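Ticket opened by: R.M.
Priority: normal
Category: complex prediction / small molecule

The reporter submitted a protein together with iron/sulfur cluster and asked that the result be attached to this ticket for the collaborator who will pick it up next week. Submitted input follows.
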Amino acid sequence: MSTIFELISQFKAIADDPKKAMDDFKKETGKGAVGIMPVYCPEEIVHAAGYLPIGMWGAQGKQISKARTLLPPFACSIMQSVMELQLEGAYDELDAVIFSVPCDTLKCMSQKWKGSAPQIVFTHPQNRKHAQTAANVFCRAEYAHIKEELEDILGVKITKKALQNSIAIYNENRAACREFSDLVAANPGLIKLRDRHAVIKARWFMPKEKHTAMLKELNEAIKAADKAPFNGKKVVVSGITLEPYDVLDIFEENGFAIVWDDLAQEGRNFRQDVAYDEDPLMALAKAWNAFDGCSLATDADKPKGGMLIDALKKYDADAVIVCMMKFCDPEEFDYPILLLQFEEAGVKHIQVEIDQESTSFEQLRTRIQTFAEVL
Ligand code: SF4
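Result attached by the on-call engineer:
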């Protein structure tokens, strides 16, 4: 059995070099990759086509210049970075790019996309809870549109059986990710925050069955490890992403361990399985409409605060850190509601700004140090 260190090194290598992961996949299978724009997409459809769904999460600390001509300076930093990479040709080898358009920035991105890969744009239903049957039918139709466009672009047939198989593979991966997250929470001194992040992020760049196999091995190694000393504070984090790595390092320096995450790039993708339905596209549609607790998945009942408070209790955490993507309107609109819910429940919390472009972190360091002292 490989050691924890060896396995984490492999995950890190993949998380830090998606291009190599894509090239390796091409060499192994002869098939290409389909870009998945943040944040939510029924990736199982791409997987069922035999292609590699690959997350497009921008780059850390990237200087933005060309993207400024196409996006306003107040577009979120992750999309500035994705646009810059696109203009540099980083995504030209993709066979297609799939966009969901839940916010103004993504709508704008889908209209200004100039990459050579054909784009497939789809919409998730907004009124998901109070008109669920109609929302399921609408969402299924959008997913059928993705499937048909992919079949045309890639020249493949995506069968019902392949789709059902892909859903099962994704559910197995989600279960392994949940187990990993819980194992890390139970032994918070063992795995560094950077490493936790890299293990989860790697799932965006590898076939899920491979990620699952490696992750199961890592989970067994963690179970066999001794309890590591930990005298810090346990936190629950929420937001779109928790990058650059420097932010995680600052959390680590101040003794924070993440025991549950509500991040769009991480836990929101695996906290819920896709339940069986005879029609696999309907299964995916129903899963979307049942998904809770994200500002991009509209729900007038605003259950996110309650979910974070429940997680805080379940994992015996000390505080919530809201990691607000700079200029992310949907998350910003929900923050005042969260704030009220935290205050009412007496939850200790802090909000920090996440800016992928950032290379200077002194202000953040001071705020996190102060918060650690307050706790
Ligand atoms: S980070 Fe927020 S504003 Fe940016 S693309 Fe995602 S949802 Fe839209």
